[in-house]
Specification:
Structural class: mainly alpha
Order of helices and strands: HHHHHH
Shape: rod-shaped
Oligomer: single chain
CATH topology: de novo design (two linked rop proteins)
Radius of gyration: 24 Å
CATH architecture: Up-down Bundle
CATH superfamily: LemA-like domain
Largest sheet: none
Number of domains: 1
Distance between the termini: 80 Å
Number of helices: 6
Strand content: under 5%
Length: 184
């Protein structure tokens, strides 16, 4: 009789552990999704600022149309990116296009003195900081989630529950790692 209670107790403990591990993985997965949503919000903010920046600059840098078009095309690509890896690559290209744009803008004192341009630059710089923080938080959540999925014994629950590793938001090329230079 005591042996039956011990076996029953072990089964109850195992079921409770399984439920706790499963619920913990669900919670972490939702945290990863929420963190990605925060990045997405900041990227949308960045994408929304760029047309205003380009439009403000058009009158001043009319013969730099290729650079303006490169920024516009990079923005369009970034807006269509799906998933962390694709978004990181597209955002890296957008950052490179913005860097080139701001380097050219340095040659136009009238543009640098334009209040609208300065205000948009300031908003863009603030947004870049927010993206950086959101990306760091997302990657922290992904690391925690992926670690939990890969470690024993929760990897057993993860395999049975169909949990898949999440992608980090990583910029691949060294040139893409550079933050757009926003100078005042």
């Amino acid at each position: 009789m005591i042996g039956l209670w011990i076996i029953l107790g072990i089964i109850v403990v195992m079921v409770l552990w399984f439920l706790g591990a499963y619920n913990g993985l669900v919670s972490l997965r939702n945290q990863v999704k929420n963190a990605w949503a925060q990045i997405d919000v900041q990227l949308k903010r960045r994408h929304d600022l760029i047309p205003n920046l380009v439009e403000t600059a058009k009158g001043y840098v009319a013969h730099e149309r290729g650079t303006l078009e490169a920024v516009t095309q990079a923005r369009a690509s970034a807006m269509q990116a799906q998933g962390a890896a694709q978004a990181a690559q597209a955002e890296g290209l957008l950052g490179a296009a913005l860097s080139k744009f701001f380097a050219i803008a340095e040659n136009y004192p009238e543009l640098k003195a334009n209040q609208n341009f300065l205000a948009i630059q300031e908003e863009l710089a603030s947004t870049e900081n927010k993206i950086s923080f959101a990306r760091q938080f997302y990657n922290d959540r992904v690391m925690l989630f992926n670690t939990r999925i890969e470690t024993i014994p929760t990897n057993l629950v993860a395999n049975m529950g169909g949990f898949q590793k999440a992608e980090f938001f990583e910029i691949q090329a060294a040139a893409e790692r550079e933050v757009p230079a926003v100078k005042f």
